Every structure is written in structure tokens, then in C-alpha cells.
Amino acid sequence: MFSSTLALQNFVARLGALSPLSNEDAAVLMRLPVDTTRVRGNLDILSTGDGFDYACLVVSGIVARFVQLRDGSRQYTAFHMPGDMADIHRVATPAVASSLQTLSTATIIRFPTKDLKAAALASPGITQAFWAYATVDAALLTQWVVNLGRRDAKSRMAHFLCEIGMRSEQSGLADRHEFILDASQAQIGDALGLTPVHVNRTLKSLKESKLVSTDGRIIRVLNWPALAALGDFDPTYLQLDNRREAA
Amino acid sequence: MFSSTLALQNFVARLGALSPLSNEDAAVLMRLPVDTTRVRGNLDILSTGDGFDYACLVVSGIVARFVQLRDGSRQYTAFHMPGDMADIHRVATPAVASSLQTLSTATIIRFPTKDLKAAALASPGITQAFWAYATVDAALLTQWVVNLGRRDAKSRMAHFLCEIGMRSEQSGLADRHEFILDASQAQIGDALGLTPVHVNRTLKSLKESKLVSTDGRIIRVLNWPALAALGDFDPTYLQLDNRREAA
DNA sequence: CGATCCTTTGACCTCAATCAATCGCGGTGG
DNA sequence: CCACCGCGATTGATTGAGGTCAAAGGATCG
User: Fold this and answer.
1) Residue A180: helix, strand or coil by DSSP?
2) Residue B127: its pLDDT value, please?
3) A101 alpha carbon, distance to own chain's centre
4) Are A127 and B130 inside 8 Å of each other by CB?
5) Is pLDDT at A150 greater than 50 in this prediction?
6) Ramachandran angles phi, psi of B48, nearest 5°
7) pTM for the whole thing?
8) DSSP-based three-state secondary structure for B94
9) What CA–CA distance (Å, rounded) separates A236 from A136?
10) Which of A143, A167, A169, A165 is nearest to A156 (CA)?
11) A216 CA, C26 C1': separation in Å?
12) Which residues contact A86 (CB under 8 A, 6 or more apart)?
């Protein structure tokens, strides 16, 4: 498992990979007061302006960002995995708050927005890094748009699995060929714009094509190249630390 | 029409509405060298790392951000209207470049990324403002995801028209009840994830319901409340300057 | 005044939604 | 220990929204 410190380290390392961060900057971030909470699954983490204002770092589990429609249905707009900071954009514009929900049981660290803001104000390097981080988040959103707008169910699912696989690998918890996707098929549907039933059928079809297999919520990718091809997946947008790739 | 200076003023005013900007900061931005270009429609403005690196401010027309798939089809991920700065996120992470295309003939101002970056580095206020601006852009992306993921064609179109209407009004060029949407139905389809044929039918159906009428590329909204209700449209996410609303 | 691009409309088909039932599993109380 | 319950996964039958294919009108422009 992942400890709180490791999650924070992972986050800071990714910031540093995106934007130069001095040792002092990194140290400031690592010294932020850490308030770790275990949250049960399927719970809304109301982060909308109820006075107590925080961003949250995922330690374990998945924290999903969503928009709720009037009819009660939800569209997930991001899945935050361990090491990801959800809602960092609140530092820039508190008014644009998003709703967060745990998919399964999760561990998170709450950082008061004002602490993060103070850190940003005190150091241009930190501001730049936060912004760069938020930019990558927006790049994921962009791909999500493409996925929903232009791909059919199988291709969409393939792209989604590839993204989750790469990001699981990045978090250091798994590798792209075998990772846990701790979400129900209904939740996956709310991410992909599909009904639960069709998520099931789509997965079934991917299994029949020997692209993936599942074991509970463990996803095994049997044929990564074929899955990536089906999903038209190009990982560039994830802005992974390619220093590791080069090694 | 809109002059280059007005477009820049509009942009700086919006920045100021999102994040406090000192007079000095605003003056610095207004003094940026302005290189106005007229670009014919349907042209790609390749902004992907070909050495000459710039962000662009829209003066007239629509500049669309898109992702191109292997099969050549496109998904638009943003429509930039007059007064909008496209691609400002390049200041934070040049690696995350997006492709831009003019829909119809447009006038744009190219700002070398390095000038914007220099302005940001010189003033924390400008950095914050740029970041806040990028955050609103991401909020639009989020809505785009919801629109594609959860709404059927009529509702999707309604939401889209409401957004474009509000933003046209914001640019000072039109009002939400009558504005120019200078895009072909095929281009609208590439934004909404619909085929050109279905865009046509959807519009037809909105006209039959007396929600909108069109005259060439002029959109007239006949019943704003009904259109907004159909599209489940809540303009909060646009982060418009509500000082004007209050007046 | 042809050429080209865009809009509009019709006929047909397909992918995914909907409706409905069954199955399997982990928890829980008698 | 076992019957019961509830959630999630799975599957079948049917429907419907939107895609595809094709052709006919309008505009605009050299």
C-alpha cells in the first residue's frame, strides 16, 4: 500500500517533472501539514464552498470528479488516482469548485486551500508547478472529450483502460498490464457515457477478443498493443515523466 | 467590428475580473507588441512546436481547438471567440500544445509565448490571472464533457447554443438572443459529436419548437428560458463578470 | 454560368439504450 | 449453520436515437 508521505512524495515528484522546482520549494510542499482521512466508498466529498475549503490528495482508492445533472444522473469528468491532487485549480479560482466522490473506500489528505495558496504566493516556482499540473489535468479532460465525442463503445473503453493502466503504473502501485480499477460497472458507465449494461457487454467483447481479462476488479491487459490501437491511444498527453522511459 | 486593441482590452478586463490585476500589470499586458493577422477560414494554425511558438488572441471570427484522430476526423474541444486567448496554457507547459483552426475567416493576434512567459515571470499577479483564465477554460471543457456524455442531440445543441450566446454577449459583439455562429453545420457536428446530417435535423427540430430561428449563420433565440431549460444550462461555469449582471 | 461548398431531406440500418430477469456473492440476523 | 437480503454482474428481448448513404436544392464565387 501507499503511505501518506509516499503519496505526497509522488505528487511533488510529478510537479518537479513538469516544472522546475527548487529543493526549497519541494521541501516547503513536503512540510505541509498532513491530515489523512479514510473515507468509505460512494461518498460525496462536498468541496463546494461550505466554508471549509480544501484540495485533496489521493493516497489510495479513486476519487472521481463529477457533474450532477438535474435528473440526478452523473457524469464523471476525472478519475484521480493515488498521488493525484484533486481540485488544485481551487487555488487559482475558488469559485470554480468541482464535486468529488469516492468510488470505493479511499484514503485522502485534505490540504486547506489557503495553505496551498500561501505556498504558491510565496514562491513563483510553486505557482508555475501548480499551474503546469492543472494544465495536464486539462489535457486529460480534452482527451475525455475526444473519447466521448468520437469513439464507439469498444474503442472508448479501450482508451479508458489504457489511460487508467498508464496512470496506475505512474502511481507506482501497479503496471499497465495488471492493475486494479476499483469502480463498479455503473461508475465506469458514468465516466464513459454508457449505460451499465453496455459497459458489461463492451467488456465482454474485449474479453472475447483476448484483449483483456478481469478478475474481480483487477484488469489484466492481455494484448497492450492491440488495446492501444483499438482505443487510438497515444500516451503523450499524460505528460508522464519520460526520464523513466529513457532509462 | 472589433479592433485589435479592443480585443486585447476585453481580454485584460476579463483577466482582471477573474483575479486582481494591478494597474501596472494591466498596463504591461496592454503594451505587449500586437501583431494582427487576418486568416482565411478552415485553415490550421499549426501551433505545435515548429520553433515559432505563440499563443493567439481572437479579434474576430472563431478559432477552434481540436484533436485530430488517425482516421482524419476531428473533435473540437473549444471554440474561442473574440477577446479569448487561445492556448494560454502553453505559457505553463509548452509541451501540451493544442492544434488550432479557424472556422471562418478570422483576425487574430499572435503573442510569442516567450513574451507572455516573461510577463508572467515578472509579476505574480499576471501569473495568477493567466492561471485563473486557464481554469475557466478547463471549466468549459468540463461542461463539454458533460454535454457529450449525458445529453441527447437536442439538449446538447441547446446547451451549446446557450453557451455560445452568452459568450458572444460577453465579447460585446452581440447579445444572447441574436448572435452569429460562424461555423458550418459539419463543424458544429465536430464540436457536438454529431454527424452533419443530424445537426441539421436537430436544428430543424429546435426551429419547429419555436426555440430558435436562423438566418444564414445568424442564430436568433426566440425563447431563451425554454432553450436553457432544454439544455440544462447553468451559466455559472462561464465565470462571467457578474458586476455587469448586478448593474 | 459552371464549380464548389453548404444545407436540406428521404430511406435505411446499427449501435447503444431500455426493460426485465437471473445469477453470484458477501453480509446479517434468526 | 443457514435462510434471507441487497448490490453488482450478466444475459436476453426489444426499441429508438442517431449514423450512413444518397440525392436534390441553394448559395457564393471566380
Assistant:
1) strand
2) 95
3) 12
4) no
5) yes
6) -90, 115
7) 0.95
8) coil
9) 11
10) A143
11) 13
12) A55, A56, A57, A58, A63, A65, A78, A80, A98, A100
pLDDT of amino acid A1: 52
Contacts of B239 in chain A (CB under 8 A): 93, 95-96
Q: What is residue A93's predicted lDDT score, i.e. its pLDDT?
A: 87
- The CA distance from A21 to A86, in Å, is 20
Please name the residue that has the C-alpha cell 436544428. B203
Q: To which H or E segment does residue B163 belong?
A: helix B153-171
- DSSP letter for B96, please: S
Give the per-residue pLDDT at B48.
60
Bases of strand C lying below 7 A from some protein CB: 5-11, 15-20
| Residue A247 forms contact with B (CB below 8 Å) | no
Contacts by B5-12 with C-beta closer than 8 Å and gap 24+?
A: B5/B34, B6/B172, B7/B57, B7/B58, B7/B59, B7/B60, B7/B82, B7/B83, B7/B109, B8/B32, B8/B34, B8/B57, B8/B109, B10/B82, B10/B83, B10/B171, B10/B172, B11/B57, B11/B83, B11/B84, B11/B85
pLDDT, position A95 = 79
The residue behind cell 443530424 is: B198
Q: Does the pLDDT at position B95 exceed 90? A: no
Q: What is the bridge-based pairing of β-strands A54-60 and A36-39?
A: unpaired
| Contact yes or no for A128/B127 (Cβ under 8 A) | yes
For residue B189, the SS3 value is: helix
Q: Is the pLDDT of residue A164 over 90?
A: yes
The one-letter amino acid code at B208 reads E
| Cα distance between residue B224 and residue A193, in whole Å | 27
Of A87-91, B39-43, B52-56, B124-128, which gets the smallest average pLDDT? Answer: B52-56
Please report, rounded to a whole number, the percentage of residues in chain B having pLDDT higher than 70: 94
Query: Distance from CA of residue B152 to its chain's centroid?
Result: 22
**Integer angstrom CA distances of residue B57 from A187, B10, B108, B177, B218:** 39, 10, 6, 25, 23
What is the average pLDDT value for chain B, to the nearest integer? Answer: 92
CB proximity A187 to B under 8 Å: no
**Triad B68, B87, A126: Cα angle to 5°:** 120
